[in-house]
Amino acid sequence: MAKRFLQQAMDTLHAPDAAAMTAGSAVDAMLKEIGYEKGSVYERINLAVKDHKLTESMGEWAHEVRLGSNRPRHADAERPHVLPGEAAQAVEFAESLGHFLFVLTKRIERGRLAATEASNPVTTEPEEPKQQGRKTALDPL
User: Fold this and answer.
1) Residue 13 is inside which H or E element, if any?
2) pLDDT tens by residue, 89-133
3) Which of 36, 82, 110, 140 is deepest in the core (most CB within 10 A)?
4) How many CB atoms lie within 10 A of CB 11?
């Protein structure tokens, strides 16, 4: 779900309001995918920071994206529209968050597993290859 929202955010950068709203939805979906499903987005961002799933600065940026996505979604009376630069920053954050939570995490898991396997080689002796010499005229068929 998060991947689709992120793709839509990237695809709609020409329409900043749409890009900001879908970037916010991508962040929301990512939090849900890592287990933060209950409460408001505000509460879930704060809980993810408290649980060290997000850094403090990531949490602050997530709140900026959340607030930016709310403006067009709720037709804010004072500033209903998102500027192109704001939308680009929201999409950049959502993309970076996805990379941090999913891509980098998987790379680290694979790297640690490979390091563990490399430091604990299999202790059984490998089988000797069977000798297959050249056949001569004297060998039975």
Assistant:
1) none
2) 999 999 999 999 999 999 999 999 999 999 887 665 556 656 566
3) 82
4) 13
